[in-house]
């Protein structure tokens, strides 16, 4: 197959060098060793995971081990972890010959990203000025997973068109940019964004789209034969969809306040998601001859409601408010897959493999503005005085901020996340244009064969199918036109 | 393929109109909008998910956020959620060409069903007479998922033979009937049924069977070519089986009493399930030439032990009692698949695609009676006085009920669930016979092509297989009979 | 196909009798009935799962139901449960025609093993001398799952070469040996081994390898055609890998101390795993022409870091220490797959289907020694006095043991586990050589057809592929050499 791929190069244009035998191991080793050194210098256990915990308990009058944050957050953490690795990973297996890369490179970049995220988020959010150390606990792990999500979303826009080395670069910059924009949005602007409509989805979506726009391939149609799903690849992708869908209530509630905060965020997300499914299916059915459903919509648009609830889930948006958000997002996202993605590709030269524009960028942005509106509309009557302070964390220097202002800052935060995504993505895109990263040629996109050793008998599948198709047409001709057939030859 | 399907209509009988382009979106939109309005009027956060929680805590002397019901039930809720969407969904992917519909329509009806269930169960169980509102928390979400399970079980009997619009009708009535029978069984008769042997499995099973009986298709053999599994579809189905199997301890313990109730229900279910696997495999092996195992039995009968523990799991049935229940159910359920399903199809005109009779209806019914016996045998010595009151909730107007009587009511409850299933199912079946629902023709059953846009290259698979089979036989002839072969032609 | 397989026997050597129609049901029934009797005699609910819990709470001044061990451990238990059934099960579906057996026999032996483990571990660890009963709770369930893991690891070395009856024997002895070595290591030597580097992975790995060595098949190449993966079987296997990878933090923390112990073990494992992924991918890429990745390495070596953290995860190994462990293990394990497994097969006649030597035996052994070093290096400064006592459980007769000695005992424990694995495995291997167990012939290994009823159209796949391959080569000849083609004939 190596030969075949080289020949293809001769036919279709200048041969690209997709050999990553030096660059991929080099990047993995250098970055992993850097992580070890930086972890050694900076990262320590926080007091809830340190062996001094029995002393801490006594000093702080904590009556029970169950008050350890581990028991509040670990079940949600594991759900989020499943979303990152199985959810995102299998969602990206839908292409017929790119499933290994979908789930495998997702595994690689999330594993690297979470290490870098522990450091970056630590420096920006929890560096102890006295000791110069970052103290980590279960909440840090959740945040690190969240931080990876931004880069994984960007991968969705790039799927099939980049090399694993490029993805490592996307992740290095993606996590860095994430930590900075998160610091600006959550700390400086003091926005609330528990489920990350703004900081995760809006940022990640536009980051990926900007990179993809810079890396536009005018001849991508040369690998059109691989740009689609097959029956079983769509079933694998549904595994990803369902684990994302089921565990999204945990995603949006994982780092909200103990007690009512986590409880309410989970309920709101659960309700919004249910509503998204019905409107996605309705629009999908309306759009096709004979009302047939399209798996692309079911796999993606059904999730849009949860993306848009990322900011507002912890607020008192009310159950019917959540239903309305899900209702609208299912419609908007499905329309996006039907009309906006083809339009962007044709008129804006934007190739968005997974349609992250419709699932993350737009619902994330709208989620940011929904959060702004719900925050601005918050009243003491609905939340109680204490509830308002808790929910919007109006303490310290923010204790006098009124809620209209808070809404304004939430909206501003959304704009910051868009700006970071677009500008950061454009810069990273230009870095990735250097011809040193081993990216595939236009006719080798969406093909696992470029970066994976494939099982032997699979390598012969495409010609078999081609041959079979040929034989079928042949046979049909024969059947309809003559008595003369292969068997009778 | 559209053409092909129309032609098929001409060959095999009157053409059915499977176009759901108007009806499916209409149903989705109308019902989703109705949900929004009804949620707006009725549904509110309960005090544990409301922003007033800090006040509530103070008023009720709750010392810690960890006492919020969220932390007692959320991990179990997520396990149940996985069972509903991945467990039931993937269990129904076993057919070779109906996997999209198996997992996709399961997704649709569960998403609608849980919304309607929050309302129906709210009206019957937790409507506050003072305010006219339903207050929801994590336990409501679990109950809504449970309520959907009834309709998903019914889908198992109907798999491949109905349209998505019909399934929405099945769910609307299924959830409604469920809420009523649950009210009668749990509130009026004051039965205990934490894991729903009676209210979920027995009801859902007979509901589906009754519908299927009314919708009997004498010419279903016309789609016999699609009525079976292939190697990989069975592997997808095993994902469903295993997630159901693993998380069933959470299902049966999700809404039992805090503390020992949840703990014991999980242990009992875990033990019963292990035992079911061994006897299912034993009977499966005995039934086949050379002792070969049948995937159908492994996928289904291994779960029967947990269904039958749905009522008794929270009682002091003892670990060996649980083993015995699992032991018997594995045998009964596997025998059901071997003998009862074919018998019912032949003599009672009952087409039960997934064999819900053997996995839900019968084990659910037996589980109800097992619960009755274990309840009647309960003594103060085994439970302690306080334990008896807790376990059987013998408070208020039921505080003087003795346990023999309780056993009698449990048995009566089982009969109520059967009656609701059979009568309700028969009525819904007649509604579904109107020729307006877009159900498939007899020769188009078990075919995703009817309601889904399929990936292009898959549409050619059946002729390819046909062709290959042909060629193989041809080749075998050639090999054995002559030197004359295709290659030599 | 039965005929075909009989014919094959005539061609390739003495016919093996793979009929398990008597033996498999007999073993299942006899052992399951024995379990019922033994459970009846010995097993009872512990006080946290007994209906007397309200009394217990009052007597022991427990203030809240949330102090019930169920809430500390149940989420971790469910994660471990998923690892055992979906993780191990699907990891073993990678072979092209042995996926049913991979996941199905895993299901069978884990279901039997956990029952026997509840008894064996109960007798050795928690038999109440006063009553002669074993009292079980959620921690017993976790330990039972752990105990099965040892036998499932052994199955990895035997995959494809043994009958289900042999696997039941492997499990019966595996669980028994496990309970004894665990008693020696944890109770007599007083080692700490929360995640089971020694007692689970090292023992299980060498147990399987010793059995496989005794059962060496010189003519295994006769089923070489089935000894590989196909595209979709590798995707199924990745489901197993990812669920193992994601939930391993729960595995290593499931039975550690409440509070900081569980918290720290989860963090350390999470970090070590991330690091393993990067070095596995680096070495995999370096080893192949053009830097292509090999799915075998991604599926397996990425997990090695967690295996090696099984002992040390609960210690204060520090986050960067965890990174270093993962870093080294990814390299060692991938090298094992590249060089050691082929070497052992060639020179030591050791056929290790899944490479458990590289994923369990060696990383487990190294994990034991890492634990010994970290224990020996523990100081009061790092742990605090109370922390040291808690972490190493230095109470009762071990309260004066210094930590250097503890390190020595940890190392001794590792040697005990190796010895038990090798000697026990050799004995069991000889038992399995009796010609009564229905194991497959050399040319029938790795073939589901031997023990499973396969879907009809699948049985024709191998000839189809063969034929297609033939035709492709033919066609290529035709294309390149002449104008004469099948179509034109």
UniProtKB/TrEMBL annotation, chains A, B, C:
Keywords: Ammonia transport, Cell membrane, Glycoprotein, Membrane, Transmembrane, Transmembrane helix, Transport. The chain crosses the membrane at residues 22-43, 80-98, 105-124, 136-158, 165-186, 198-216, 228-247, 267-286, 298-317, 323-344, 356-378, 409-432. GO terms for molecular function: ammonium channel activity. InterPro entries: Ammonium/urea_transptr, NH4_transpt_AmtB-like_dom, RhesusRHD. It is a multi-pass membrane protein. Pfam families: Ammonium_transp. Residues 68-450 form the Ammonium transporter AmtB-like domain. Its main location: membrane. One of its GO terms (cellular component) is plasma membrane. One of its GO terms (biological process) is ammonium homeostasis. It is found in: Cell membrane. Belongs to the ammonium transporter (TC 2.A.49) family. Rh subfamily. Homotrimer. Functions as an ammonia transporter. May play a role in the elimination of ammonia in the gill. This is (Atlantic silverside) hypothetical protein. It comes from Menidia menidia.
């Amino acid at each position: 197959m190596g030969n075949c791929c080289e020949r293809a190069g001769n036919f279709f244009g200048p041969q690209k060098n997709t050999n990553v035998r030096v660059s991929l191991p080099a990047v993995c080793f250098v970055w992993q060793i850097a992580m070890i050194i930086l972890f050694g210098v900076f990262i320590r256990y926080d007091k809830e995971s340190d062996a001094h915990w029995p002393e801490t308990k006594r000093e702080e009058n904590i009556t029970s081990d169950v008050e350890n944050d581990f028991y509040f957050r670990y079940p949600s953490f594991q759900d989020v972890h499943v979303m990152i690795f199985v959810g995102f990973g299998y969602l990206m297996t839908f292409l017929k010959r790119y499933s290994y890369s979908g789930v495998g490179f997702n595994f690689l970049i999330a594993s690297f990203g979470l290490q870098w995220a522990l450091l970056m988020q630590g420096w920006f959010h929890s560096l102890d000025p006295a000791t110069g150390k970052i103290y980590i606990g279960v909440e840090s792990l959740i945040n690190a997973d969240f931080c990876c999500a931004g880069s994984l979303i960007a991968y969705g826009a790039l799927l099939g068109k980049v090399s694993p080395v490029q993805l490592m670069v996307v992740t290095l910059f993606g996590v860095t940019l994430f930590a900075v924009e998160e610091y600006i949005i959550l700390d400086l602007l003091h926005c609330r964004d528990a489920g990350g409509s703004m900081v995760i989805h809006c940022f990640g979506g536009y980051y990926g789209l900007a990179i993809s726009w810079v890396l536009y391939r005018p001849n991508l149609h040369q690998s059109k034969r691989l740009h689609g799903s097959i029956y079983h690849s769509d079933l694998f992708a549904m595994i990803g969809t369902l684990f994302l869908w089921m565990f999204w209530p945990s995603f949006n509630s994982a780092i909200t306040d103990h007690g009512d905060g986590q409880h309410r965020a989970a309920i709101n997300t659960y309700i919004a998601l249910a509503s998204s499914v019905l409107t996605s299916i309705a629009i999908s059915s309306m759009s096709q001859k004979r009302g047939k459903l399209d798996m692309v919509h079911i796999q993606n648009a059904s999730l849009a409601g949860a993306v848009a609830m990322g900011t507002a889930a912890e607020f008192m948006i009310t159950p019917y408010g959540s239903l309305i958000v899900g209702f609208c997002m299912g419609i908007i996202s499905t329309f996006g897959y039907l009309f906006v993605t083809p339009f962007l590709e044709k008129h804006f030269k934007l190739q968005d493999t997974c349609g992250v524009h419709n699932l993350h960028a737009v619902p994330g942005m709208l989620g940011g503005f929904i959060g702004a509106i719900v925050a601005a509309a918050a009243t003491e009557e609905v939340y109680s005085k204490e509830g308002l302070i808790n929910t919007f964390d109006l303490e310290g220097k923010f204790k006098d901020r009124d809620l209209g202002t808070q809404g304004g800052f939430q909206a501003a935060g959304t704009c910051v996340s868009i700006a970071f995504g677009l500008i950061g993505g454009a810069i990273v895109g230009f870095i990735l244009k250097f011809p040193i990263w081993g990216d595939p040629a236009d006719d080798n996109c969406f093909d696992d064969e470029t970066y994976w050793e494939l099982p032997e008998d699979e390598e012969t599948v495409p010609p078999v199918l081609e041959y079979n198709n040929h034989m079928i047409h042949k046979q049909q001709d024969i059947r309809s036109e003559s008595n003369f057939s292969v068997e009778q030859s």
